[in-house]
């Protein structure tokens, strides 16, 4: 029996373009459906229709046999079809976890005696038992999303809709969320998951692909996700195992088309047991950038035993000793009492290098970035730019000009009335003449492939997400830095934009000769692009070296919740299988 | 960050004062303020000061921390005292430099106002140090409850207050990032905020407001999705309940008021 039914649904926000344009969809009770689609394909609009946050302009949506347009069934539908949104920070109502989880129940008028029990049960279902009294602000993004799910579960719904709920999470948060979804589905909950991530889609039992408000592909993951050509046309990714197995088939190795790396490894071992050793070597080589001698040896940025704490000065002396001896890591969230944001980190960045930094949210990456251009001063140790100590104010000011930083979600820092003014903000602060400013804006915008003449007077807020980010990039490039630090520059973008931005960054490195520091969660990108990689864990250096060395020990990286590039993972799997086979 | 007491921050501890019903504490704080204004001389004010010190002791908050918590606001005390010192004249003249005249009454009033203001700030700080923002919000809602009949949206007021408090730490974080980003683009913010000009200021404020609107958009959808429809028919996870403690607190405040009035009249 269908629990959700879309019948010829059309919906428009502005009366001009249909966000949903004739959607017919039946979702079965207890199923796990994944909805894919590029930006603007209508995924989120579809999700909001399930929860009756939006109602169709034409056609009908029926949830649990109730019409979403019927005001009488509004709360019946909303309490039975729970929804989790993209930004973990935007959906939490209260400062204390249990109050937040209880919010929906309170609205439904559930008697007070029942509340505490249901709140605790819901928290246990998402693996957060005992968190009732904690403050929501102290949680990690992944934990916040689980609190949001608990808030929905407390209402004992039959459907859970996740609208890109994992888009802003780090890999560890994403894994936790995926596990919770799977467990809930096994317990009988119907799940509708909207996502950009193919590994998540591979877990579902049905995949629906939207484009321009229409369902264009619909079927089991094995049917949909294997249509590589079609998916690429729709600006979507293909799961790694799928594209890899298809490539191997073309190369004459007859593995079945697979969805997961495990399947592929098993298939490879069966079909070509004697070639796995050679294959593993090949895969490993392909994962990494060919060693280049392009980068010079001149260090332009050096960290020497740098430690940093956000604790105010008077407390430092008192707590320094006490905390250093206490090495137990925080077992939940970003422990606000964690003393060191960064501890004894040393690194050397050489001119022309492509340097990668990996680590979870809260591992000290953002702190490191701000130390690198003199925005923060180390609590201990020294930071040198071109051999000059950044503790010196003048050196710090110069470093700020020389080291450009693109912060996370840089489009959130746009402010000017026109694109031109926003990009010109930096050059104008340097006190340049208007001709020089014009020149710099032109250069910067051409570097990010935007046309000054077209966008000059446009409001940055009226642009699409991808374009906004380009403008923000240009604003940093207009300072003409020689080094560019990018803090998760592709976070929250759809696959098409992700590829475009990575290409852009590679161009800046290869063609403009800029030194690049890329902070990323994606081990594939780091391995493929970087000359060297630093892995941070809880403010400390975990690994540092050429990608091939850093990603050599998969088990060690997994132990802190990080991973290795897909190619390396596959290589390791078939080698293990190969050895096991003997 | 850090564990220092700060005006407006909760000081986690288990004490009689912490356990009082937040409504009692809210009304009690207002009552204390009234009492302070009833105190007409130093004797009465001294007595109120003793009561405030005793309350901090009962709340198990070290008095040094209590003073520290109001330190950022101490400029109000200093300014008011200075005004009194300079502009109130009468009695014996201590200093007379033509434009600057300091006289007996000025000194007395300056001192008196300084003490009274300090006590006011301390009692406000005591409320926030011993009560979570959520409890204050709810007490506020309950106390405004009767006004709902004449159309005051008490629940909505309280909810807005609660949500504002919930988003405060987040906006502080976002502001920090925005500031760092604009500084990296050469914004002259650190050196002199007054000279940095409008464009540098808007470079901070516009993104912050844009972010507030973005948050508000999703938050309202998220609240709708969880069946929010105003105060009607809502239940509470932790309904407020008065206990004997609250009765004792009320009695204590009445006695304090009586004694303060007595001191004021008798001396």
Please tell me about this protein's structure.
The complex is a heterodimer of chains A (582) and B (267). Chain A is α/β, with parallel strands linked by helices. In chain A, 42% of the residues lie in helices and 20% in strands. Chain A has 24 helices and 20 strands. Chain A has a six-stranded mixed β-sheet, sandwiched between helices. Chain A has a six-stranded mixed β-sheet with strand order 16-17-18-13-19-20, with helices on both faces. In chain A, strands 2-1-4-5 form a four-stranded antiparallel β-sheet, with helices on one face. Chain A is globular, with a radius of gyration of 25 Å. Chain B is an all-alpha fold. Helices cover 68% and strands 3% of the residues of chain B. The termini of chain B are far apart. The relative contact order of chain B is 0.15. The model of chain B has no long low-confidence stretch (mean pLDDT 84). The interface between A and B is large, with 71 and 56 residues.
